[in-house]
């Protein structure tokens, strides 16, 4: 009987709810009461979806983070390469400017090795006998003289730097022409001037250039800058220290100088002879134009 009663009541409520609007307010109120049950029923699904989305988002972020890190490393590598190329371009431009200021014939070369012996200052360059390199040939960088070639091989050469303890070069003070001998000390940033009189006119900041007296280095190339002058009244010679103008421990690109073996008088004589030959050639080319007859301004046909 209870089942029958509730069945009939349920059917009646369904018919009334479908046909009439009397139960809509009641159904709305019942919806508010049943809503927590719906929320509790959907909670496991929402938790699962949230966890799945969180895991997928975390994995995507981790993958994207790794990708960005790799791209950052690639960009940093390119930036470092660009910085290296920029510095190399600057050094090459300085070297080209130095080559333009040098009157003698030059050949660009690159450093490929350094002597591992700490008591010698020697470097290896990539030009040798096949390129015309000879013993004693001067080597300079964008700032000044570096040394001279002491060993020539078919494709490479060994250069003795100015700061080697066995090397000396005749120099003169650019300000007043005072001559001296600059010797290496084993320190890549120091040269010493030997046997300079205590009363000599030399001071800090003076530029030392090659004098050309040793017939090995051409005259006029920067060698060093005087950094310290110590006078001792009890000694006949002053202590003079200088810093090389060339970047001996940093330069990678250098110039090999092919000096002209002729004396200044021979160069002047040959230059004058070449100029006279050129003048004679110009006169010979202009002579036929002078000797050619001048055509009349109005030909006979035109006058008639």
Biggest sheet record: 6 strands, antiparallel, barrel
Provide a count of the helices: 4
Mean pLDDT across all amino acids: 80
Determine the strand fraction and express it as a percent band. Answer: 25-35%
* Lateral strand order in the biggest sheet: 1-2-5-4-3-12
Structural class: alpha+beta
The CA-CA distance between the termini, in Å, is 154 Å
Helix content: 40-55%
Order of helices and strands: HHEEEEEEEEEEEEHH
Number of E-state strands = 12
Shape: elongated
Instruction: Return Rg in Å.
Output: 46 Å
Write a concise synopsis of the structure shown.
This protein has 304 residues and is of the alpha+beta class. It contains four helices and twelve strands; from the N terminus they run H-H-E-E-E-E-E-E-E-E-E-E-E-E-H-H. The chain starts with a helix and ends with a helix.
Keywords:
disordered C terminus, alpha+beta, elongated, 304 residues, six-stranded antiparallel beta barrel, six-stranded antiparallel barrel
Protein described:
It is a single chain. Mean pLDDT is about 80; it is low at about 300-304. It is built from four helices and twelve strands. It has helices spanning about 1-20, 25-100, 265-290, 300-304, and strands spanning about 105-115, 120-125, 140, 145-150, 155-160, 170-175, 180-185, 190-195, 205-210, 220-230, 235-245, 255-260. The radius of gyration is 46 Å and the shape is elongated. The strands form two sheets. Strands 1-2-5-4-3-12 form a six-stranded antiparallel beta barrel. It has about 300 residues and is an alpha+beta fold.
């Amino acid at each position: 009987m209870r089942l029958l009663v509730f069945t009939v009541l349920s059917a009646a409520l369904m018919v009334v709810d479908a046909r009439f609007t009397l139960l809509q307010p009641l159904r709305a109120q019942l919806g508010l009461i049943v809503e927590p049950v719906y929320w509790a029923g959907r909670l496991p699904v929402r938790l699962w979806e949230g966890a799945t989305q969180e895991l997928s988002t975390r994995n995507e972020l981790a993958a994207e983070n790794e990708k960005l890190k790799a791209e950052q490393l690639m960009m940093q590598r390119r930036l470092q390469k660009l910085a290296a190329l920029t510095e190399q371009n600057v050094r090459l431009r300085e070297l080209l400017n130095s080559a333009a200021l040098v009157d003698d014939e030059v050949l660009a070369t690159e450093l490929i090795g350094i002597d591992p012996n700490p008591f010698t200052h020697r470097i290896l360059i990539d030009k040798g006998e096949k390129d015309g390199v000879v013993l004693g040939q001067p080597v300079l960088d964008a700032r000044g003289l570096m040394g001279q070639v002491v060993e020539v091989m078919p494709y490479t050469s060994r250069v003795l730097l100015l700061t080697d303890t066995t090397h000396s070069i005749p120099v003169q003070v650019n300000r007043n022409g005072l001559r001296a001998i600059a010797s290496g000390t084993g320190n890549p940033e120091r040269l010493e001037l030997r046997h300079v009189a205590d009363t000599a006119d030399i001071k800090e900041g003076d530029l030392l250039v090659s004098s050309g007296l040793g017939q090995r280095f051409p005259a006029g190339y920067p060698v060093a800058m005087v950094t310290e002058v110590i006078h001792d009244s009890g000694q006949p010679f002053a202590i003079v220290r200088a810093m090389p103008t060339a970047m001996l421990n940093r330069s990678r690109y250098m110039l090999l100088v092919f000096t002209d073996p002729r004396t200044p008088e021979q160069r002047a004589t040959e230059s004058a002879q070449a100029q006279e030959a050129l003048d004679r050639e110009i006169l010979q080319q202009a002579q036929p134009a002078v000797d050619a007859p001048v055509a009349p301004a109005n030909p006979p046909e035109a006058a008639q």
